[in-house]
Amino acid sequence: MAVSKEIKVPNIGEFTDVDVIEVHVSTGDSIVLEDPLITLETEKAALDVPAPASGRVDKVAVTVGDTVSEGSLILTITAAEHLAKDAEPVVDTLVATELSPPVKSQNVAPEVAGEFSGRVDIETDLLVLGAGPGGYTAAFRAADLGLDVTLVERWPTLGGVCLNVGCIPSKTLLHAAKVIEDAEAMNEFGIRFGTPEIDLGALREWKNQIVGRLTDGLDRLAKQRKIHVVQGIGRFLSPNHLRIESEQGEQVIGLKRCIIAAGSESATLAGLPNDPRIMDSTDSLELTELPETLLVIGGGIIGLEMATVYDALGVKVSVVELTDTLMPGVDRDLVRPLEKRIAARYSEILKGTRVTEVVAEDAGLRVTFDGTGAPKSQVFSRILVAVGRSANGIRIDATKAGIAVTDQGIIPVDRQMRTNVPHIFAIGDIVGEPMLAHKATHEGKVAAEVAAGRKRAFDARAIPSVAYTDPEIAWVGVTELEAKADGIDYGKGVFPWAASGRSLALNRDDGMTRILFDNVSGRVIGAGIVGPHAGDLIAELVLAIELGADAEDVGLTIHPHPTLSETVAMAAEAFDGTLTDLYIPKRR
Ligand SMILES: Cc1cc2nc3c(=O)[nH]c(=O)nc-3n(C[C@H](O)[C@H](O)[C@H](O)COP(=O)(O)OP(=O)(O)OC[C@H]3O[C@@H](n4cnc5c(N)ncnc54)[C@H](O)[C@@H]3O)c2cc1C
What we know:
The structure is a single chain. By secondary structure, this protein is an alpha/beta fold. The protein folds into four domains: about 1-95, CATH 2.40.50.100; about 110-265 and about 390-450, FAD/NAD(P)-binding domain (3-Layer(bba) Sandwich); about 280-385, FAD/NAD(P)-binding domain, CATH 3.50.50.60; about 460-588, FAD/NAD-linked reductase, C-terminal dimerisation domain (Enolase-like, domain 1). Helix content is about 25%, strand content about 30%. The chain contains 13 helices and 31 strands. The strands form seven sheets. Strands 10, 11, 12, 13, 14, 15 and 26 form a seven-stranded mixed beta sheet that branches. A five-stranded mixed beta sheet has the order 3-6-8-1-9, with no helix packed on it. Helix 1 packs parallel to helix 8, helix 3 (about 165-185) runs antiparallel to helix 4 and helix 3 crosses helix 6. It binds flavin-adenine dinucleotide (FAD). Flavin-adenine dinucleotide binds near residues 131, 154, 160 and 436. Flavin-adenine dinucleotide binds near residues 153, 154, 233 and 264.
């Protein structure tokens, strides 16, 4: 018996008589659950009405230019389960599933998906591919919302790059570096510890213990939520099937929905010899030895953080960066104190310089440079290649699921974290910059909630970035470089830490807090901080941007004294003209 179903406009909040601006289907089309049927335009935004069921379109009842309200007929379909059967039509009514917050669709051409009709070993409501900060957060949230979740991870521990070979081990070693440097700095002021003895094995063990504590914790949290964790390398076979390869063999998982959280890998440089003395960030965290000299290729965050560690441990560090600046894209006034400090400590900082050749010799790695002011070739004991990260979209055969993937392996998504395949979401590094753990976790929650039928979208106004170098550099929102390039009418409040009692008590006077304000609305639009704990301090300014705070909101908030956090209020007061801790001539 063929069943004809009517699909009607769902609840669209307070809106009535909204315009139909696009009709995505025609009579005879096959549609699958969640395919966009029509796009409506309200005074606030455009929103898609997704299909509440799969099937074949029998008749489209609306055209572009029509106005519709809740309950208006959009189209009739023959549901997929009845397509093959032949009998009298019975009319049934479906209202499209609750609309999610308005999102613009990606407008990317779907790839041709693969097909799979073989044996399926596990069936799951929601498959999460990759157990990094994005994946485990998505899996946990989805399980908390009642979905049956299978989490696939190729590594033996959960936590992804961040916990295993990224944020946590690097920050552990950076703490060790800080202790050494702080102790060293006190020499001048009457406390002398002597040269530190470094037991690399013990240091490595301490770092591993911290990582282990966190990853064990994730295991427990997954078990408590009854998440089915499958270890193995997952690759798509079709939009609803993933093949898992592991030492135990192969299995196929059938999925109704999927969240891809397969992250990224260290980018490599072509033409380098295969030599264990050439490290990526993961190797460098292993601390297998302390080389006499280290060349860090890449003056970005990861390279400079690891340079900080190796320098503190007594290695002679050089840095080579292709562009004319360290940390390209970050405001120069923020990077300057770091550059000044490391210029005095490192053997060399080569900017605007390209590495053209590396030759493995017995004595070390001979490196040839090119660029204005490039030195002659030099030999280094080890090299760390830190030239960025590449997203894993191609490596997981995403195109076999019909998912659009860029040449760089990035999977485009909309604000609901949905790919061009409606039941498949993607989050974290695999969806592109900024490749940061806190972005991945937030996206993970959004994807899990949307997959569970909730109305959610990624609508953060700002994502902070931090370089945990010494000094730390943190920034959020609009940079001054961007404000100038975009012609934004902005003003700034700056507070130099040389005037902060707490900063001087920490024996540091090289920091700065700088806030950018929109001159029209008065609101905070961006901020940068350089100095110890900048990464913690920036959180207040992220909140200021989220809440639409202005200089008075920040300046009139009482900050504890003496803290570095006062510098945030004082930068706001500097803009507002109410700062008393410095003399700033009045702006006319
Ligand atoms: C040295 C270093 C330091 C960093 N420091 C910071 C920091 O301080 N702060 C910060 O915010 N970010 C930092 N990052 C970046 C941060 O680690 C990433 O942004 C974050 O881990 C991304 O999370 P994710 O969930 O998207 O992916 P990932 O953490 O990359 O996790 C992806 C997971 O998917 C798994 N996987 C991939 N392919 C498959 C497959 N085919 N089958 C099964 N499993 C698969 C991987 O094994 C991995 O566990 C750092 C990165 C590095 C390398």
